[in-house]
Amino acid sequence: MGYKKTQIGFITVLTIFQIAFIVLSSIWFRYDESFDETSGADFDLRTDYYYTYYSDVAVMVIIGFGYLMTFLKKYGLSAAGYTFLLAAFCVQWTLIANAFWHQIHEYGELHRFDVDIPALIEGMFGAATVMISFGAVLGKTTPLQLILIAFFEIIFYSLNIYISVLRTHATDIGGSMIIHTFGAYFGMGLTTVLTSRKTKEHLKNPDNDATKVSDVFSLIGTIFLWLYWPSFNGALGVPGQRFKVVVNTVMSLCCSCVGSYVWSVLLNKGKFNAVDVQNATLAGGVAVGTSANLYINPVGAMAIGLIAGSISTIGFNKITPFLEETVGIHDTCGVHNLHGMPGIIGGISGIIAVYAGTEDHSLYNGAIGNYFPEGDHQPFRQLSALFITLSISYFGGLLTGFIMKFLGPNAEKPFTDEEFWFDEENDAEESEEEELEKKPLDDEESNISSSEDIQLKEKLSSEN
């Protein structure tokens, strides 16, 4: 009965949200008001320019994150399937939430909002943030909980964008702080409330494990993320800055990859650990995000990547077990190691890069205002944004976790697809078992019926 109630709740809540999104979109959204058929060629060029970045980011979010989380041996359908659904849900909700804050910031009241390809990219950034948080509670929540978590998280995410970017004027082109740090510590807040009491139970669960096949599928997600990360960091950058974004991101990723392999061998008795290769190799893309468009020089990007990859690998091998055993926090995917700590490294390296730029304006050929809206005060704004993001994300995750705990239980069969996905092979086996269980009962009933018939016939014959 609990299963049926959960799924009925999921259908009801998701349908209500979708109808609400359509209604709000009809009120707020429009095409760019400068568009007309005579200017169509210009818009086509702009669309072609940005759509490449949109498609790259979408591949990262849906395929990259989706397959990265298929490492659990019995949760592949759920990992990939829920990622697909959450992406479609979050793009719509992020557009609406961002539109609200942008209008408040620009006009002080609500106006109609122009929807274009950059706005869709921002929608995918919101989806990416939710995917990061999803990793912390992977395998432990119901579909209904995931939809509600996404709904509340985007509210906090867009609020943080409003405060940290629109009001504080922090620069964070690749989202080290506002996407990765936010998503990681929102997820850590969630799992602190939802699953901390069951950490030992989850660690002993045989389904909370990988196989060689599931690890290979997860590695597919890693490779997609690694290849497309320059587009993620540069999707909304100014055209003149994108060459630095690509160079810095690739160099940082290469060094984090090398660093993670070295540390994986050192920490695992001379062998590579699939978890390190699947995750820590990506830490350089996370950590270089804030400073990707700044003059950090290739050597700076390489240093950031090497530090991030090393710390991430150490985190998976040392920090995660410590948090599980001493604090009781169970982070299924280790988002604290891939997104949390590298995100903080990205925020700190961004502060250093901004400080260097404000001390030596010649780095930007006198165009410092194009990079730092607050001029010489920009380093302090960067530091403020980092603390604001950490605060809103973690406490927002805690609050959302308490709401989820109040609304209903977690998944009854964690780390498996069995509870919410139709599996023809498993369901057929269950049906056979049910038939076998019923068969002795049916035989017994038929024997009883036959015995009663015989007694009735004997009684009738004696009366006659």
UniProtKB/TrEMBL annotation:
Transmembrane helix listed as a keyword: yes
Ammonium transporter AmtB-like domain span: 51-405
Comp. bias regions, Basic and acidic residues: 454-464
Keywords for this protein: Membrane, Transmembrane, Transmembrane helix
Biased composition (Acidic residues): 424-435
Species the sequence originates in: Anaeramoeba flamelloides
Gene Ontology BP terms: ammonium homeostasis
Lineage: Eukaryota, Metamonada, Anaeramoebidae, Anaeramoeba
GO cellular component terms, semicolon-separated: plasma membrane
Membrane topology of this protein: Multi-pass membrane protein
Protein family per UniProt: Belongs to the ammonium transporter (TC 2.A.49) family. Rh subfamily.
Name used for this protein in its record: Rh50
Main location: membrane
Coiled-coil ranges (or none): none
Classification via Gene3D superfamilies: Ammonium transporter AmtB like domains
